[in-house]
Write a structure and sequence with these properties.
By secondary structure, the chain is mostly helical. About 65% of the residues lie in helices and about 5% in strands. It is elongated, with a radius of gyration of 23 Å. The chain starts with 7 loop residues before the first helix and ends with a helix. Pfam families: PadR. It comes from Rhodococcoides yunnanense. This is PadR family transcriptional regulator.
Length: about 200
């Protein structure tokens, strides 16, 4: 099976099961505990769908079921030899080959000249406030991991995300300062047009 047939959440599931057998709810809780939701979009429904798909592809196999108290019956899964091969191949592909992911924020930056400067800068400032909170949260996770002597190799993804957000914050702060100082001139036609349209309403 081609590795690209497994989506990012599927890769996360295979990676978890390479640590040992688990049931989907345990996977979900562990992914959240490790802040993997910063890296992969995780929802309970999508996780269960990913598990079902991997099972159908024979990349994981059922190893038993259990029922604790009044909870629904839970099925435990383990990774198969085919699953291990796909995991290794998919990771090699992801690490080796850059992929154009077309983030929406880049589109927003490319087209924000359609807004008046005051509005665009206010929006970017609000974004930096959100970034600051996220950076602080990730920094706290890094400190906790170090205190627990968890090898950095296990949270490289979070560390990378932290540094990417910090770089974005640095760039945005500099960009906002350049617009505020007049170093970077905003298209006057846009501001004039916006004012005219506003006056009409």
């Amino acid at each position: 099976m081609r590795g690209d047939a497994v989506n990012p959440l599927g890769v996360s599931v295979l990676a978890l099961l390479s640590e040992g057998p688990m049931h989907p709810y345990e996977m979900y809780q562990l992914l959240l505990e490790r802040k993997e939701d910063r890296i992969v979009k995780i929802r309970p429904g999508s996780l269960y769908h990913a598990v079902a798909r991997l099972h159908g592809q024979e990349l994981i196999a059922e190893v038993g079921t259990d029922r604790g108290g009044n909870r629904p019956e839970r099925t435990t899964y383990e990774i198969t030899p085919a699953g291990r091969r796909v995991l290794v191949d998919r990771l090699a592909e992801i690490l080796r080959s850059p992929v154009r992911e077309y983030p929406q924020f880049t589109l927003g930056l490319s087209e924000m000249h359609n807004l008046p400067a005051s509005e665009a800068i206010a929006l970017l400032r609000a974004r930096t406030e959100d970034l600051a909170r996220e950076i602080e949260e990730l920094s706290g996770f890094q400190r906790l991991a170090r205190e627990r002597t968890v090898s950095e190799i296990y949270w490289a993804g979070i560390d990378y995300t932290y540094h990417m957000l910090a770089a974005e914050m640095k760039w945005l702060t500099s960009y906002i300062d350049r617009v505020d100082s007049g170093e970077l001139e905003w298209p006057h036609a846009i501001s004039a047009q916006h004012t005219t349209l506003t006056d009409r309403h």
